[in-house]
Amino acid sequence: MRTMNSTKRHPNVPNNVRIAVINAMKDLEKTEANYQWVAKVNCLSSFCVKRIWLTYKNEGRYLNKPKGGSEKKFDQSAQMTLVNLARWHYHLSQTELCKLFYEHTNLEISRRSAVEILHNHGVKSYKGKFKPILSQEQMDARLKWCLEREHWTVEDWKKYVFTDECGIHETGRRNVYFLRRPDEGDDPRFFLATKNNGGFFVSVWGGVSQYGLTPIVCSLSDKERWDADHYLKILKQVAVPFLESLDLEFQQDNASTHTAEIVQHYFDQKGIEPLPWSPHSPDLSIIENIWHLLKLKLPVKVYENRDDFVAAIRLAWTQIGQDVVDALYESIPNRIKECIEKKGGHTHY
């Protein structure tokens, strides 16, 4: 059984993650709840967070200790050359990077050695994120919006229900991993099925509040597209009754269906004033994280009919727990802070 006095280290935690953990813990009380929160944000165990913090507190050390062993083939200068090449030519594969390193240093390096050196310097290969391109004008608008709400607390944000729509394709998921043996690559169990046009398609409306998720609304057919009239129907039948039952405020983005005249007229009639939303800011809305989790919870399979697919979506929606909702609301002030620090640029959320 591991205890706080254990000497076991966690050398596989990248240095940049260790720094993020330490910086976060500096501003928090050292309670079990805060350890667990920092662990969840950084995808670590709470034990690992405690060890990283105690190492810093007792030894004043941010980074991993260098590994022992025989003298390394690549000195610090060669390693930094590799790191700088990777940072400059970030689009290259590992094999291409090794070739480029040889061209610059006349030193041969294996992919494994290159990866180890890069990892030790906090450089890893990550999947690219899809983000809208921001103009300076849009960044300025985001910055202004965040500055106006810089001092809002989590309790202030919990007054709002965050809502949006999402489209889900039956076979739209990518980068799905299976645990299998090397010789099982052609086993149909490990195939990702494809269909013409992505299979069934369902438009979904939903929201997230401090009390949990709203009921969701699913489109009745693949070809059904939601216009302002349909959105107004969702507001009347689902969204507004949910708001009124819990005395909450409303958030929506600036999509044309949301800002249509008939929708604004209905809001005026009901005395609803939606939260003015920052343009091009899906990273500031926690409902976007809910959509991502919803898609991850959907079983990777081919559905016999559309009703089964819709039923799977509804079931996955109910499996998103309150702990996830609470963590997302806790993250909003940090999103605002990060956007301000980046002068209206994209956050990592």
TrEMBL record:
InterPro entries the record matches? Homeodomain-like_sf, RNaseH_sf, Tc1-like_DDE_dom
Molecular function via GO: endonuclease activity
In the UniProt record, does the keyword ATP-binding occur? Answer: no
What positions does the domain Tc1-like transposase DDE occupy?
161-298
Q: Does the keyword Nuclease apply?
A: yes
Keywords attached to this entry? Endonuclease, Hydrolase, Nuclease
| A Pfam family of this chain | DDE_3
Superkingdom field: Eukaryota
Q: State the protein's name.
A: DDE_superfamily endonuclease domain-containing protein
